[in-house]
Write the structure tokens for this entry.
Amino acid sequence: MRRLSALLHREDTTEMRAYDSFESALLDSDSYEDPRVIQVVKEKTRRYKETLASGHRPAIQSRQIVQNLFVLSFVELARPLNVLEIGGACGASYFETKAILPGRIRHWSIVETPRMRAAGESLNDDPRLSFHSDLTSAAKQLEFRDLAVAQGALQYAGNPLEVLRDMFALEPSYVYITRTAVVNVHAPIFTKQDTELSAHGPGILPNAPAGKSSQPMTLESYDALTSAVPANYEIVFEFDESEERLVSIAGRTVKIRDVGFLAEKARHR
């Protein structure tokens, strides 16, 4: 879900519209509250959850899974992890981690939009997973604030830097950012992406509905992103997660790539 690369690697997609503000892009988009997207993500996650619960562990076939497992195995080795995830949809990453690394998670709190949160709650029967609409309530569910995660979520916020600062303000031991699209220009770009409905959520959904859904985006530079890292944190790993892509936005050529990093709170180790 939420992969800009799925959009940008299409040969017939070379132009992305620019807007004066995120609000303008939102008004011209379906948003992630699109009930069609919610239903596809919910059904895909239900199928994935049931497959994992049957004892079938997912094959380690993607760079993203390897990277996530590295991070989850690197941080806070002394005890099971408490994780806060921004934009975790219906909990696929938690179910995946639970299957691959049994006993690794103490609690996993997800912050989502109201409709996606409700969809996740309707699937959930695991007391170690909870869904919330704000950071404060999500953090209250955690015994310790070990790891805050944003997977492919920041670029869909009106102000990604503000969201990132809010994550650091909770003072977790680590902050993990991944699948985040950045551009090679200094000023933020407000645009939208159009994605096939079937591309949302984990895996493949037989007889997925046809059509597309659009979501507003705010694209920042990598320097702007890392400027939100406070002085008491150190970026210990940076992740180059894709090759650069050339995209035309409002008549100008822009380079876009997907990045990530793991930041550690000072004197944690």
In short: The radius of gyration is 18 Å. Residues 24 and 190 are 8 Å apart (CA to CA).
